[in-house]
Design goal:
The chain is α+β, with helices and mostly antiparallel strands. It folds into three domains: 7-108, Schlafen, AAA domain (Methyltransferase, Cobalt-precorrin-4 Transmethylase, Domain 2); 109-375, 2-Layer Sandwich (Heat Shock Protein 90); 378-435, Orthogonal Bundle (Arc Repressor Mutant, subunit A), CATH 1.10.10. Helix content is 34%, strand content 21%. It has helices at residues 18-26, 48-63, 110-120, 140-152, 165-171, 183-189, 227-239, 259-271, 317-325, 335-345, 368-376, 379-389, 395-402, 406-418, and strands at 7-10, 30-34, 68-74, 77-84, 92-93, 96-101, 104-108, 201-207, 214-221, 244-247, 250-253, 280-284, 288-294, 352-356, 359-365, 422-425, 432-435. The strands form five sheets. The chain has a six-stranded mixed sheet, with helices on one face. The radius of gyration is 28 Å and the shape is globular. The N and C termini lie far apart (74 Å).
Length: 438
């Protein structure tokens, strides 16, 4: 026997251990053993009969819950088991709330406490109403864009697209019965969500040899309905090399990573983000992408079950429903599997998930085949591909993206001009590049 999510050992009883019982009641239930050492060996206690009466009385008085006190024997040694059942309402001890995290008891504070209480009430953050917001804060064009996608995906009928914006939002459960906008409405379709939520941003950074070597970065802000596309566009333009191939006369530019799986990872992070916490962070390295998303996994879905088939436990139910209606989500509970399968089928190593710093971190690895292709690719081809995506790039910006010196870029550009593949239009400042078909 050892300590776990639902087991705690104590040599003797102290009233401060009521916090462990509180944590069990707020989590999945569990047992506190009195008279047992940390290693699980029985030490025994002398006052079992008194504690059999005292501890249940203390839990009723301090926590307002009933527990089951059981007397056990190991040879001549006696010890107690205090069993607490999971509770449907939040349980506090002197105004403080505790939960189990692995084999430890933790006090909940701030955003984590707010989310815990909402969950116990059967509510989610995106379902709460926004104070001081009105229908004028909604971007009608984005709502219409959503409706077109949802109708094309056959998840809304054409009759859903009316001139009554208030009624549209109400039918989408984005307005409550009092006519108040919900958090989800401002997050999805707000003209300026940052006015109401400080962490509605997606930060992208390009790193060199270490986590301290940040070369350049972008911050994607605005409504989250359009955010997945804007993040992918930014990655394509500045962060990821796009090898060029042709299908007939059509020019095809694939990303270094399987785009559908990468988009799924980005979408997943936006939908399941804890919007009372900080921003999403995406870090691009030479050999991998690391995506960190604030918000712990739900208790019903431990990390070791994440890669396997599992029910859907959306942190933000309304956000998930809107993205589903728009056709961005194909099936509930399949997002993680889609990411993994997408990378494996494209010849990449399996993505790695870990819980870190109050959030979920996903590492996406570049395939060894594509890494070797990149390393052997000529600098001139890299420069041409970057300029094709963004003709306004300067030599210093190209150098940062390719992690080489500006002088090396200038030499490549000079050579491309010399052989007639590249031309400068306009002055050094304010001009742009033109790729010549030679």
């Amino acid at each position: 026997m050892k300590e776990s999510q639902n087991t705690e050992f104590k040599r003797i009883w102290k009233d401060e251990y009521l916090r462990h019982i509180c944590a069990f009641a707020n989590s999945r239930g569990g047992s506190l053993f009195i008279g047992v050492m940390d290693d699980g060996s029985v030490a025994g206690i002398n006052d079992c009969k008194k504690l059999l009466e005292d501890i249940p009385n203390k839990t009723i008085h301090a926590l307002g819950i009933y527990v089951e006190a059981l007397l056990h024997k190991d040879g001549i040694l006696e010890y107690l088991e205090i069993k607490a059942q999971p509770n449907t309402v939040p349980i506090s001890l002197k105004g403080m709330y505790y939960v189990r995290s692995g084999s430890t008891t933790q006090e909940l504070k701030g955003a984590a406490l707010q989310e815990f209480i909402l969950k116990k009430m059967g509510r989610t953050f995106d379902d709460l109403s926004v104070q001081g917001a009105s229908i004028d804060d909604i971007d009608t064009k984005v709502v219409r864009k959503f409706l077109r996608k949802a109708i094309n995906a056959n998840r809304l009928t054409p009759e859903s697209d009316t001139d009554d914006l208030q009624n549209i939002l109400f039918n989408l459960k984005l307005i409550n019965d009092k006519g108040e906008l919900k958090n989800a409405a401002l997050l999805l379709f707000g003209k300026d969500p940052l006015r109401f939520f400080s962490s509605v941003s997606f930060r992208i950074g390009r790193f060199g040899d270490s986590d301290h070597d940040l070369r350049f970065q972008d911050v994607i802000e605005g409504n989250i309905f359009e955010m997945p596309d804007r993040v992918i566009e930014t990655l394509r333009a500045k962060y990821l090399i796009s090898p060029i191939r042709y299908e007939g006369l059509q020019r095809i530019e694939d990303l270094e990573y399987p785009e559908d799986a990468l988009r799924e990872a980005i979408l997943n992070s936006i939908i399941h983000k804890d919007y009372t916490s900080v921003h999403i962070q995406l870090s691009v390295y030479d050999d991998k992408i690391i995506l960190w998303n604030p918000g712990k996994l739900p208790d019903e879905l431990p990390l070791d079950r994440l890669k396997h088939r599992h029910p859907s436990y959306p942190r933000n139910k309304i956000l998930a429903d809107i993205f589903f209606k728009a056709g961005y989500i194909e099936a509930w509970g399949r997002g993680i599997r889609k990411i993994i399968d997408g990378f494996l089928n494209a010849g990449h190593p399996e993505p790695h998930f870990e819980e870190l710093a109050g959030g979920l971190q996903l590492t996406l690895f570049k395939s060894s085949e594509k890494s070797s292709e990149k390393s052997s690719e000529k600098s001139s081809e890299k420069v041409l591909r970057l300029i094709y995506n963004n003709p306004n790039l300067t030599a210093s910006e190209i150098a940062k993206i390719l992690v080489i010196t500006p002088r090396a870029v200038e030499k490549v550009i000079a050579r491309l001009k010399e052989i007639g593949k590249l031309k400068r239009i306009g002055p050094a400042k304010g001009g742009h590049w033109e790729i010549l078909d030679k």
